[in-house]
Amino acid sequence: MALHFVSCIFSSKPQIVAPKAQHSQYFNSSKLDALHISNKWNIVPEERSSAEVYKTGNLRRNLREKVEVVKNELWKSVDESSFKGLQMIDVMQRLNIDYYFQDEIEALIGKQYANCSSVGSGYGNHIHQIALRFRLFRQHGYFASQEVFEKFTNKEGKFKPELSENIKGMVDIYEASQLGITGEHILAEAEKFSGKVLKEKVDCIDSHGDKLVKRTLEHPFHKSFALFTARNFLGDFHNKNLWVSSFREIAKMNFSLLQCSYHREIDQISRWWSGLGLANELVYARNQPLKWYIWSLACFADPTLSEERIELTKPISLIYIIDDIFDVYGTLDELTLFTEAVCRWDITALEQLPDYMKTCFRVLYNLTNEISSKVYQKHGWNPIHPLQNAWKSLCKAFLVEAKWFGSGKLPGAEEYLENGSVSSGVHIMLVHSFFLLGEGLTEENVEIIDRNPNIISSPGTILRLWDDLGSAQDENQKGNDGSYVDYVMMDKPEYTREVARERAMSKICDAWKRLNQECLFHKQFHPTFTKASLNLARIVPLMYSYDEKQSLPGLEEQVKSLLYDSFL
């Protein structure tokens, strides 16, 4: 099936028609003009042919057979205590095929961790061995002490200067340092030292090494979305082992199969969105179902979670629509009434709302009931109240911002950021993800989820700060948007914009450390939910890297490659 993705992204400007409701005095015409840009993420569905369906079936069967061959003939020959097994796991993860070998990977990591129970014991003597073991242990929820890197430091706690000649070792150290948590000074020094060395050496090494170093600095594995980086990995990986070619075959088939699934899912989302009719009634709002789907794809990267990806895209679409209502169109009185209606959650008490708000609330009300019903039927738990609470929190956060900007009584930077982590919409995405996954559904976990824990608030902080750091505003929207950088400069008039941006980047690093700590020490949530939280944080930079034309060239390139290119 072919989606007219390229033409939709780069299509001519759509005709903009004024909404039926009369514009308020607060209506922002510059944001309406921004639809010329934002509508390029709309999608046009096409029917799948029977030949495509048949091809997908064959592909799935061939992939399943190849995975079994690798498990039975290749994986079983690996010594569970050898370093080779960890190298294989690293390649699987980077090729985005690890979910086919999850049981085998968990067994090997567990065995290796048991062998390394004391500090430094069993980690190896070389930087590469120690750094990879450390990184894989932490990625899989096993605490590895930062002290394993002490052997590479001097009496002052600084990394030994002679290490800088080992470029591959510096890459490994930098990758491992990304899994640091709050208060780990050795890892902080490791990141600082290796990052400085790699930046200095990047122009002094061969072209292959140059690409590897640049990609590591820009996209360290732990903070990158594997689906988007897998295609480039083999170009950086020069290894002649036979198992590499076997993994490459699996990766190629997996990539082709995923493409088929994504086309089908996007088609279903397009039909749902078109049938909903919101794009016609709320013409001032963003019309970006393909972009919304990418968030769902990040949260639910496992190929088996197709239904969940489709369902999650629906509430994500409403985050954007309600954000536009607050940021573009509604008066403060109207926004207050809308928030009160959401907090009451009463479909019969909408008389005071403008028509466009009535339509939006009805869609929100019906969608929340629909998702709650599906979760109950599949997992035996009715999430209606936690989902309602999430939407109430979002609208309250939006209203707080509207009141700030409407009154001119602006908040301090930290107050803004605390509210902004909620108004980012991440809470909505991850609460819905938790219930759609249906893993770990206990009273205790539901209560924790309802309190916006670190596993949710940390990605929310990361999103809010990246949004504010964007080189251009979202789709050239010039409505009532705040900026953490601006508030920092208001709190500290002596700060330059560059210093304020550095502080925002430091806040992002701190949020990542909290998220790492949550994944490492608080294991009440199922790994699939933990991964959803991590992947959401990982994809944020790509979703907010706007250029001077208010476009997302990096994201557009990745999505085009994902939907249309073949695996390298």
TrEMBL record:
Gene3D superfamilies documented for this protein: Farnesyl Diphosphate Synthase, Terpene synthase, N-terminal domain
GO biological process: diterpenoid biosynthetic process
Domain Terpene synthase N-terminal, residue spans: 60-203
Keywords assigned by UniProt, alphabetized: Lyase, Magnesium, Metal-binding
Coiled-coil parts of chain: none
Occurrences of domain Terpene synthase metal-binding (ranges): 276-513
GO molecular function, one term: terpene synthase activity
Cofactor(s) the protein requires to work: Mg(2+)
Pfam families for this protein: Terpene_synth, Terpene_synth_C
Protein name: Linalool synthase
Organism of provenance: Vigna unguiculata
